[in-house]
């Protein structure tokens, strides 16, 4: 199951994965929320929390995740993965260089720190734009 994490500022989305995550979870929760956010934001920040109740991803969910990432490849500003699931941590650490955004990996005990990092104001660029 995937559910949205409330309370993040505009331009930042958070999701919590628990139990078995399916392609339906992606198509009914994550994808519509992200697509709606991209309709009004040029760049997004993403927090993805895979907590202790997580049991796995169905193959279709993995495919949905890959497709979503490629659809908005250059649209991510920051991404945080919060998990103690070892295989996810190893994969994220190994593939973090391929994420076209500032990426940080956090443990479950650091969820509040990850939320604060995702919520930090975007620095102005040289032209004063955010």
The arrangement of helices and strands along the chain is EEHEHEHEH
- Could you report the average pLDDT, rounded to the nearest whole number? 85
Structural class: alpha/beta
Separation, N- and C-terminal Cα atoms: 34 Å
Quaternary assembly: single chain
The major sheet is characterized as: 5 strands, mixed
How many individual β-strands?
5
Poorly predicted ranges: none
Strand content: 25-35%
Radius of gyration, in angstroms, nearest whole number: 14 Å
- Proportion of residues in helical segments: 25-40%
> What is the strand arrangement across the widest sheet?
1-2-3-4-5
Give the helix tally: 4
Shape: globular
Topology record:
Elements: E1 2-4, E2 12-21, H1 23-40, E3 44-57, H2 59-71, E4 76-83, H3 86-95, E5 102-106, H4 111-119
Helix pairs in contact: 1-2
Tell me what you see in this structure.
- This protein is α/β, with parallel strands linked by helices and 130 residues long.
- The chain has a 5-stranded mixed β-sheet, sandwiched between helices.
- The chain contains 4 helices and 5 strands, in the order ββαβαβαβα.
- Helix 1 (23-40) packs parallel to helix 2 (59-71).
Short recap of the structure:
This protein has 130 residues and is an alpha/beta fold. Helix content is 38%, strand content 31%. It is built from four helices and five strands.
């Amino acid at each position: 199951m995937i559910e949205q994490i409330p309370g993040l500022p505009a331009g930042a989305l958070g999701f919590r994965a628990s139990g078995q995550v399916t392609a339906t979870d992606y198509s009914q929760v994550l994808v519509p929320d992200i697509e709606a956010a991209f309709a009004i934001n040029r760049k997004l920040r993403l927090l993805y929390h895979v907590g202790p109740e997580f049991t796995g991803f169905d193959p279709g969910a993995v495919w949905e995740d890959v497709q979503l990432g490629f659809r908005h490849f250059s649209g991510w500003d920051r991404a945080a993965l919060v998990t103690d699931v070892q295989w996810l941590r190893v994969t994220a650490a190994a593939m973090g260089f391929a994420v076209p955004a500032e990426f940080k990996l956090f443990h479950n005990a650091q969820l509040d720190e990850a939320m604060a990092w995702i919520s930090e104001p975007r620095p102005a660029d040289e032209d004063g734009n955010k």
